[in-house]
Amino acid sequence: MALLERAQWYDIARSTEWTPRYVTQDELFPPELSGGEGLPDEVWSTYDEPYKVSYREYVDIQRQKDAGAYSVKAALERADLYNKADPGWISILKEHYAAVAVVEYGASFQESRFVRWSKAPGMRNMATFGMLDEIRHGQIQLYFPHEYVSKDRQFEWSHAAMFTDNWVTLGARHFFDDVMMTRDAVSTSIFANFAFETGFTNLQFIGLSGDAAKAGDFTFSKLIQSIQSDEARHAQLGTPLLQMMIENGQREKAQKMIDISFWRSYRLFTVLSGIPMDYYVPLDVREASFKEFMEEWIVTQFMRSLEDLGLSKPWYWDIFLRDISEHHHGQQLGTYSWRPTLWWNPAAGVSPPERDWLEEKYPGWNDTFGKVWDVLIDNFANDRIDRTVPGTLPVICNVSQLPIVGTPSQTLRDISLVHEGRRYHFASEVDKWIFEDDPERYRHHKNLIDRFLGGDIQPADLGGVLEYMGLGVVGPGGDDAHGLAWVETYRKQLAKAG
């Protein structure tokens, strides 16, 4: 019997629906889990996913992707990348795998909630493939770093990081819980699929893929290319929902969702992508800066997606454009200074040639962030290592859960408010606006400083804090990626100057 072409049966199969007889529509799709209040019932059948695939086609494509990634890994296993690659690049691998692998597995639960709770048959169908995607991403990104564990215990964080209370983990987990796990299906898809995946996973997967190939790490490059092709597909889940909301008089609600999720995603990626791109990637293979990548992939391409939908730029656009030139530089200073609290060895990235590159990409860097590095370098060059690690804890933003930073002597300030007797601190007016929009969502969370001051961490000293965060338990904490070899140039300059 001749088989039908997919186009001849797909629309019939995807729109197969049933009429509940023993429960009401709201019992089958509880509004607090399904979302989409105010959208007429007949609208859900119009959800038209832009990417269509059958299960047979999906399995065949995924098998080919896995075969390609695993075969490249097998072919290059004797290349001894761990010992030959720049230590800064190895730190990128440690940061990426620990921050992403288990989160990908968590994303499969996000997709499974669409499968169960979405009122749109087409979305339930597409999310089934998205769920399988995320399981594959979790598995492959746990398997690839496993070979390094016997060489370097910091790679154990690939599996363990998301189960600890490390301060970086607290920030990442707070974000992913907010956008993936605690909202209704419609809101989650707009927050996670449209804003996070369409807008920002390109930074991590396309940007790092190019950097990996230039750094000679073809295994990692092939791996994340394989993942990004899946992300590009299920990232499209949110676009038809936005169209449905806008066409049914909910444009303002859709715009607010974009504004919140865009800022929250951006701030996380300043640490996850911004620091590695501008400080860890070896200088001889570093091309585009984080700012340039943001301008190409976010300012231009993501904004075009918003315009196509009839949505506007977020209200804080001017703040965002200024922020992409400064925020990640402040986070680099903070994370490097607090290097014992990291699960990777941060690269300083401030040798004389690297400072020239930073000044070229960010005019004025030497007169602002460079001045702070001058103090650190002077202490390193004069063997005052103890003065290069802060003696106090940072102030942490109650929305992003990241340290509050800014351009020294220009934009560094704490923005706070008192809500029901408790003072909350924010890294920007945007973070404060997000909190004020829904204080019940954020007010109960305790960041690392809240836990320390509240007596949750014992003993209340540096050793107690490090153990609480898993440092020395899961694996050793961080130190300079290059063993401070880059300081020698400055030491010679000081000796020559007398």
UniProtKB/TrEMBL annotation:
<keyword id="KW-0560">Oxidoreductase</keyword>
<dbReference type="InterPro" id="IPR003430">
    <property type="entry name" value="Phenol_Hydrox"/>
</dbReference>
<dbReference type="GO" id="GO:0004497">
    <property type="term" value="F:monooxygenase activity"/>
</dbReference>
<dbReference type="InterPro" id="IPR007029">
    <property type="entry name" value="YHS_dom"/>
</dbReference>
<dbReference type="Pfam" id="PF04945">
    <property type="entry name" value="YHS"/>
</dbReference>
<protein>
    <recommendedName>
        <fullName>propane 2-monooxygenase</fullName>
        <ecNumber>1.14.13.227</ecNumber>
    </recommendedName>
</protein>
<feature type="domain" description="YHS">
    <location>
        <begin position="418"/>
        <end position="445"/>
    </location>
</feature>
<dbReference type="InterPro" id="IPR009078">
    <property type="entry name" value="Ferritin-like_SF"/>
</dbReference>
<keyword id="KW-0503">Monooxygenase</keyword>
<dbReference type="InterPro" id="IPR012348">
    <property type="entry name" value="RNR-like"/>
</dbReference>
<dbReference type="Pfam" id="PF02332">
    <property type="entry name" value="Phenol_Hydrox"/>
</dbReference>
